[in-house]
Amino acid sequence: MKRGKLIYYEGGEGCGKSIQSRLMKDYLIGKGIQVINTREPGGTPLSEKVRGILLDPKSDEVEPWSEVLLFQSSRALLYHNLIIPKLKKGITVQQDRGRDSSIAYQGYGRGGNLDLIKKLNILSTFGYEPDLAFIIDISPEKGLEKQLSADRMSLDGLEFHRKVNKGYLEIAKENPNNYIVIPYIENGLEEMHEMMKFHVDKLFKF
Ligand code: TYD
Q1: For position 135, which CATH number holds?
Q2: DSSP label of 180
Q3: Model pLDDT for residues 34-44, shown as the tens digit of each residue
Q4: 66 within a domain of the structure (yes/no)
Q5: How confident is the model at residue 152 (pLDDT cuts 50, 70, 90)?
């Protein structure tokens, strides 16, 4: 059986990845593709508990490497228990954040060792890589203004989120074949969806 496709939606706070992945899910279902959406951190019962710890503004004793490892442990569970079995059944999986968030936030944002984080990513994804990844490029000023819930990460300052965004653009540069930067367009949900559809159509050869 052909393995399902793995598609990532990434970007800074408030960039609208979640809504875009939902729109794309509807589009793919309309095309007869079996697809599930999931998110990181989270996606399985235990990973959702880890998400609660990670995003709680009261989790103030988290130190940088413990943060990295909590995200990675949530990811390993999600890949092992949900993503890999679905892909093996030929089901497409769309991820609202994935391994690149660790590189952008814990690496570029917090200054964690990039090589080590990339190695941990290989471990926690069991070597699975996205077939296609969208990086939505939003200015941190705009993104933080749009952020609805104040989770622990979005409480970090503008300077931190600037580094995160710079990180995302670096990741896109390092992966020119399957990483696509989509500019955030104010009130441009449909326009952004159209841009993404172009690449999804190519991936599925519609
Ligand atoms: P989420 O609600 O998905 O963010 P958003 O509201 O921007 O969609 O919250 C996830 C937060 O966790 C977000 O601030 C990014 C952060 N994060 C990391 O720092 N590292 C990671 O590896 C992942 C998956 C997320």
Answers
A1: 3.40.50.300
A2: E
A3: 999 999 999 99
A4: yes
A5: confident
Q: Are 132 and 199 contacting, i.e. CB atoms less than 8 angstroms apart?
A: yes
Q: In what order do the strands lie in the sheet with 92-96?
A: 35-39, 92-96, 6-11, 132-137, 179-183
How far does the centroid of ligand 1 lie from the alpha carbon of residue 151, in Å? 9
Angle between helices 17-30 and 189-204 (to 10 degrees): 50
Does 134 map to a domain?
A: yes
Shortest-distance Cα residue to atom 17 of ligand 1: 101
Q: Is the CB of 154 under 6 A from ligand 1?
A: yes
Is 92 in contact with 7 (CB distance < 8 Å)?
A: yes
pTM of structure: 0.96
**What are the C-alpha distances in Å from 173 to residues 116, 176, 178, 187?**
19, 6, 10, 27
Q: Which H or E element spans position 183?
A: strand 179-183
| Domain membership flag for residue 1 | no
- How many structural domains does the chain have? 1
Q: Calculate how far, in angstroms, residue 41's C-alpha sits from the geometric centre of ligand 1.
A: 7
Q: Which domain holds residue 133?
A: 6-204
The verdict on residue 22 lying in a domain is yes
Q: Which residues is 94 bridged to in the sheet?
A: 7, 37
Phi then psi dihedrals of residue 156, to 5 deg: -65, 155
